[in-house]
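Thread: "does anyone have the structure for this chain?"

Original post by V.I.:
We have the sequence but no experimental structure in hand. Need at least a predicted one for the grant figures.
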Amino acid sequence: MIYRILILILISSTCFGQNSLLWQITKENVKDTSYLYGTIHLANKKYFYVNSKVHDIKKKVDAGVFELILNTDSLAYISKILMAGEGERITDVYSTDEQRLIFEYFQSKLGFQEVILNQFKPIALSNYMIQILMPPDTIGAVDQLLQNDFTRGGKSIFALESVKMQSDIFFQIPMSVQKEELLESIQKEDSLNNAMKELDSVYCNQDLKGISLLLDDLKNHKYLSKELMNDSRNIKMIPKIEDLLSKQSNLICVGAAHLSGDKGLIKLLRKKGYTLVPIN
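Reply from O.Q.:
Generated one for you, tokens below.
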């Protein structure tokens, strides 16, 4: 179960021998060259420079393409749905002993008081655990920093998905499952910390095979399955990507887990006649 938390930030047979997060996209009769880049949804500077060539490419392409457009409205929407409603608060869901465990954990790690913690759904607190184990050192994840660069440069940005669509996928998890996930994460913090280190390693090494192996744990999960979280979304992204590729040069930035596999963007684009070449 520990790995299911990681899918919230990564978002597959694999591309063996192709260790790169950055891929060039070309096609006969398509004038402009575009690029595909695998990101990670963590706010740490080192991930911004894993493949430094992406920063040269963002300067020469016409547009940036992202899973979501991260602006005030979308971030406010996400914040709102993380808040607990009736029957979703810590005091509604957990026993007295479990409440004490959760409240003491987050008070000791983040200084949050019970009255604040009780306003969030369990899944929101699970996400906060990522910040505890890997404290942010910049204002946003790779996606957001790149998006900010495009905006500052006066370039167009486009979204492949809506914030509501993503939220409907991530937050349809039943409260019973959210409850179990949060408790297990706290009780097995060492396992989660080790999993975070493994994620850090495969991403920094641009290891698509390693990223795929992390996804394997989700294959049979009912609510966060690989099919739901990754494959079906990739298939829906392809028509939008093709439309954008026909109009201008783009840097397409999506979670690294979307790149490889039989239903990954690399293989799906190749089936459409595009040539994708890794850039190291």
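V.I.: this helps a lot. The two ends are 33 Å apart (CA to CA).
O.Q.: and The mean pLDDT is 87.
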